[in-house]
Amino acid sequence: MTKLALRFALAAALIAAFTTGRAFAASKTLGLCFPAADHGWVAAVIYNAQKQAEALGVKYILTTGANPNEQSSKIDELIAQGVGAIVMLPADTKPLTPAAKRVLDAGIPLIIFDRKVEVEPTFYLAGDNPGIGVNAARFIGKQLGGKGTVVSIGVPAYGSVHTERVNAFRDTLKKEFPGIRIAKEVGAENSSKEAGLKIASDLLNAEKKIDAVFTIDDELSIGVIQAIRENERKDVKVETGAGGAQEYFNAIKDSPDMTLASFLYSPIMVKDAVKAAVDIMNGKKPAKKAVILPATGVTKENVTGYLDSSSPY
Q: Is residue 38 part of a domain?
């Protein structure tokens, strides 16, 4: 579809929505709009969303965008195609807010998963992002006995996910473990292992003493471990990640020299978002406007209960 044709189709769809109130209520086709699968967690989200739609027997249109602008265009395509509801994982908060508003203005139920937008969606589902920061701070604080130096690695491009995890980690350390100093807060380009390796290598060159590392993502953490071992650093004793990556779970189980932990933010959560979208298309109102799932800790003591060789992530 050309850009001009898309504009006309979108305009027609919006006019129809305003004149009929809920123009797309009769549609039973679900729109799925996600960032491109640049790392395993997003790939697993897409996989689980499709599997859930298929299990529920609903027709769906899957779109992905390599950046916020592309994802915004995909949202316009879904609006123009008259889907009955849209499940969106925004690539970033602010850039995708106008697209989210266009969905709601068109009378289409909007289910936001994971990263927030700055309008109220029909339904919101995510893991406990602040809880990840809080729990990681408490784990590191206890492991270090309340004293030491840590570094914090986030991914600013991830919007509210980054902000909520990093801020909660910083605030909890300051309040509950004043003897622990954050030497640096840095931002990786993305949450890939390669990005973790690069930014951790730079940190290790800059900081002579690091007792613990907090990261907002398991795959990022795997790259950090590689950097620590390649640089032969023996001072780093604790690292925390988040997500639910099997490779990191295995590192938690087998690590001989560091205490590792993760806090769950499973891609399987998206199944609940898809289920909510299908319910809404079928006329069922969600019991709550938002559902936040807990950031359960995974450590050496309980990691075997989370190992799954069939997991795509």
A: yes
Helix axes 218-230, 40-55, angle to 10 degrees: 150
In what order do the strands lie in the sheet containing 85-88? 59-65, 29-35, 85-88, 110-113, 123-127, 290-293
Domain housing 101: 3-127+267-293
Does 302 lie in the same domain as 167? yes
Cα gap 267→49, rounded to integer Å: 9
Assign residue 203 a region: left if phi > 0, alpha if psi is -120 to 50, beta otherwise? alpha
Cβ neighbours for 282, distance < 8 A, ≥ 6 positions apart = none
Q: Count of domains in the chain?
A: 2
**Sign of the alpha-carbon dihedral angle for 265, 267, 271, 276:** positive
Whether residues 61 and 99 share a domain: the answer is yes
Please give the average per-residue pLDDT across 64-91, as a whole number: 96
pTM (predicted TM-score): 0.82
The predicted-structure confidence for 210-263, as pLDDT tens digits, reads as follows: 999 999 999 999 999 999 999 999 999 999 999 999 999 999 999 998 999 999
What CATH number has the domain bearing residue 19? Answer: 3.40.50.2300
174 plus 302 within the same structural domain? yes
d(CA 79, CA 230): 49
Q: Is 233 exposed, middle or buried (0-12, 13-18, 19+ CB in 10 A)?
A: middle
Burial of 112 (0-12, 13-18, 19+ CB in 10 A): buried
At residue 10, what is the residue type? L
Neighbours of 139 (CB within 10 A): 21
